[in-house]
Amino acid sequence: MDIRLQLLPSAHPPHTACKLRTEPVFREHQLTASLIVRHDPTAMARSLLSHLLICCSIAGASDAATTATQRPADPCAGRRVHVRRLPVRFNLDLLRHCAAAFPLVDPTSPATSTPSCASLANHGLGPRTHPRSRSWYRTDGRLLEPFFHRRVLERRCLVDRPARADAVFVPYYAALDALPYALDPALLNSSALHGLPLARFLARDDPRTLARRHGHDHFFLMAGPAWDYSQPHDADPRMYGTTSLLRRPELENFTVLTVESRAWPWQEHAVPHPTSFHPATLPRLRGWLARARRAHRTALMLYVGGVSRPSRPNIRGSILAECANATAAVCTVVDCSGGACALDPLMYMRPMLRAKFCLEPPGDTPSRRSTFDAIVAGCVPVFFEHAGARTQYGWHLPRRRYDEFSVTIPKESVVLGDVRIADVLAAVPDADVARMRARLLELAPRVVYRRHGSTAELREASKDAVDLAVEGALRRIRRRVHVLEDGDPDAIYSLEDDDDLL
């Protein structure tokens, strides 16, 4: 099967420039390239690297053009980002893991496999769900890092000299780099070394950039929960499937974006799990939201996830027990055991459009991708603990206003039998459900990762998950830098996050 990579759709050239420019400069430097990759991740890596180098060379060539025109106000003030140049072994070469690098791994289990080569299509969004689809993809969340990298390269206000930057983005594919430690038994006891080569390179290659603000102005993204990268260095025995990246002292001042953060480390912040919906135009975004708004919802509640019965009482077991004794009009279950739903959004998005409430219990970790699928579908999420989302995604969802678009039922009351979930949800007036759904769909564009090369109309209409993640990192970095400049570095550890901007 061929995988077609559109490095830059010619219809949408403006954001390929690495710096803010006038429209004539954009027209002059339109770039169009396409590559047919026949299950060849190396070719994809080379094409992405070429795009990065071309983008940055254009930025240098047009410096004179941008400085020739003086503007009364600087639209890039406080927003300039430098994309750190890394050897490809830290990012693009890591895409080789798609090609069955570990023969002992079970390829049928997402928990013990590498992303398939087909998932690399469309810069990590994966192949389209249907040849005629323009917004829906079979997205493997483990490839969020190369997609995020691609989207950062589209941002305005990129600069090629770190001294001019307000923040430094490190395009390190940390989750992909962790695969050898997680999947190769021979490397299990070496998992504490994850990230050490990167730390040594940053300290050696350009020490002034790193030392200028002691790393406080650096940030990168990890396509996985922080828990998987926070094992103590001296843990014995080593925990299978985890590394010690976030324990590395050389990286402790970096802002780390993860799909799930821990409650206490001050350097982490969560970004939404990627869904399969990636619109490229405003009509396609609005068209889907209109469909979710008018959907006929016949089921009271829906659970999407694994259905194996737990060995001891927990909230998932209580949900399955309640749904087993309910009619389809009260509770619908979509069995996603063994990753059955991972790359097939049709299996769960259609049921979500037919349900009023979507149950979002914690699993191995508190958060779930299903939460963001539910938001996109207009299915009101039901949480059973605040760590499921409320304490996680403050840059994208208003932390103190969750009651406007979700329901919270304490998991202890369900597990102990004090309440039935269906009774609680059935008691919510229809008018309140309609208001929650309307608010949910207003927020949906903030958790969607729009497609690279999207139209200017869509970019100007709303900020998406990438926009808000980068702006949140910039705000956090500015506050840290101000504290450093004031001569009180210890105050950094007591800074509160600037959530709830809605």
Automatic annotation (TrEMBL):
GO terms for cellular component: Golgi membrane. It is found in: Golgi apparatus membrane. It is a single-pass type II membrane protein. Pfam families: Exostosin_GT47. One of its GO terms (molecular function) is glycosyltransferase activity. Keywords: Glycosyltransferase, Golgi apparatus, Signal-anchor, Transferase, Transmembrane. Coiled coil: none annotated. The keyword Lipoprotein does not apply. InterPro entries: Exostosin, Exostosin_GT47. Residues 76-415 form the Exostosin GT47 domain. Belongs to the glycosyltransferase 47 family. This is Exostosin GT47 domain-containing protein.
